[in-house]
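tool=predict chain=A
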Amino acid sequence: MPTLAKRILYVRKVLLDLTQKQLADQIGVKRGAVTNWERGGNIGRKNASKITELAGVTLDWLLHGRGERPLPPEAPSKKVLSTTQVIAITVEIMEGLRKLHWSDREKILVAEKIREFSEEPQSSRVSQQTAIRLLELDIRRALEKETPKSETSSTIG
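tool=predict ok
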């Protein structure tokens, strides 16, 4: 893809299947910032890194177009999450939490985020891979707000 603006648009629409507002919310900026980037405006390295983390692409590809263009998820992974899938994800996360040495408050916070995620209307769901990334980022952001880094004993990997 020839321009950074087109790569950002591709990541948002094709790889993540998000609206500008959804992407903005996930990386902590206003929707107008995403609009600006998609029209050719400058993006800071910090925000570009957040996008690459969310989308699973390299910073080198996003900023410079080097390397192969990431392919969109295959059709089966684009279907919405079923209740069974949400439960499976929740169980997997909770089992992982038991192995961590987190405070009770941190565990409660993660459980709240999982509950909030599972209660989202079906129409707002995205692919399972994207949903997991969004949930992980939301949990990380909440933990960072809740607990100073020096007090956090573990982070989500």
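Residues 64 and 141 are 28 Å apart (CA to CA). The chain has two domains: 4-72, 76-146.
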